[in-house]
Amino acid sequence: xxxxxxxxxxxxxxxxxxxxxxxxxxxxxxxxxxxxxxxxxxxxxxxxxxxxxxxxxxxxxxxxxxxxxxxxxxxxxxxxxxxxxxxxxxxxxxxxxxxxxxxxxxxxxxxxxxxxxxxxxxxxxxxxxxxxxxxxxxxxxxxxxxxxxxxxxxxxxxxx
Length: 160
Description:
Blueprint: H1 3-8, E1 11-16, H2 26-37, E2 43-49, E3 64-70, E4 80-83, H3 104-113, E5 120-126, H4 139-159
Parallel strand pairs: 1-2, 1-3, 3-5
Antiparallel strand pairs: 4-5
Helix pairs in contact: 2-4
């Protein structure tokens, strides 16, 4: 990919998670599905895993950031929810005691502190059914991957 093409990508879909912890890998499975079905060239698809500070440089030039992850939301496992975290973005009640606990919202805030333009953040989340050793999603989350991919395609079309 040329640097010019990279610079044109204004929307990034970032899948967060750990594929060896069952439902924790949901965000990565959604990114992999989006890569299979294809997205417009101006959409950057990123498997963030548990990347922490390593993801900072990926925010350069990004105006819209869609984060796909699991969250302990009051929904049945596999049901999807879209929300915006507010301005400034924050996770109520979260206390960080180690650099290993830095999440996406903290990275966006750090990006702003560095004098960079913060992207507009949208979350697409589901509640996990199980988080345990294993490389398979539970059935409710496995079924939600395709629906999440369709929702993201719609969101990206709205942004562009």
